[in-house]
């Protein structure tokens, strides 16, 4: 395996570069998935039937906290990648741990939000609007949950094997995934919650 020391560790082999390129292709498929979910939501968001609409169930405070936690986690994972690139394993792991804890905080608020909706009688069966909403939010939440466990697995590998082209490549690809989830959340925050609250 030929290592190009002039490149960042995660790009230092041809295999690593191909894996990163392949992951960008995978993210393209993820974009199609979420674009489809958004399209369904925008098609059905006025079909509330006898159930509540967004303005009646959305609460701005928890959504702002979710946004703060997820955007902050995007910043901390960026710091983690920077620490990885300068060879600081401890700092890299610390920033990745902070990122995952922020992700857990996000999931905790989202789960509480879903429980509140159900307590208020707003379930996935109540209306087409709520079905589309919960499918969109649930899919994003499932991705964050998967990301949490993926991040834990990477931390275990870095702790046991150190920073090398393989672990750096995995950590960098994970950071791309996490940033992608943050971008999707910005769209959810802007076009689902804010739009729903003012409509």
TrEMBL record:
Q: Which residues cross the membrane?
A: 21-44, 64-84, 91-109, 129-159, 171-194
Enzyme Commission code = 1.10.3.-
Its placement in the membrane is given as: Multi-pass membrane protein
Record Gene3D superfamilies: Cytochrome c oxidase, subunit III, four-helix bundle (1.20.120.80)
Location of the Heme-copper oxidase subunit III family profile domain? 1-197
Functional note: Catalyzes quinol oxidation with the concomitant reduction of oxygen to water.
Protein's recorded name = Quinol oxidase subunit 3
Species annotation: Lysinibacillus xylanilyticus
């Amino acid at each position: 395996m030929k290592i190009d020391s002039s490149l960042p560790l995660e790009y230092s082999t041809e295999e690593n570069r191909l894996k990163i390129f392949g992951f960008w292709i995978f993210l393209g498929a993820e974009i199609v998935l979420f674009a489809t979910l958004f399209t369904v939501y925008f098609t059905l968001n006025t079909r509330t039937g006898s159930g509540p609409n967004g303005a009646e169930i959305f609460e701005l405070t928890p959504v702002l906290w979710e946004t703060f936690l997820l955007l902050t986690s995007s910043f901390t994972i960026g710091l983690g990648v920077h620490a990885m690139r300068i060879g600081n394993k401890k700092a890299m792991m610390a920033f990745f741990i902070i990122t995952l804890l922020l992700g857990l905080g996000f999931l905790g608020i989202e789960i509480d939000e879903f429980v509140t909706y159900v307590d208020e009688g707003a379930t996935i069966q109540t209306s087409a609007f709520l079905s589309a909403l919960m499918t969109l939010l649930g899919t994003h939440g499932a991705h964050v949950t998967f990301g949490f466990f993926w991040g834990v697995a990477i931390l275990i590998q870095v702790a046991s094997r150190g920073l090398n082209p393989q672990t750096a490549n995995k950590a960098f690809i994970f950071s791309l995934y996490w940033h992608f989830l943050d971008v999707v959340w910005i769209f959810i925050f802007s076009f689902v919650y804010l739009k729903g609250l003012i409509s």
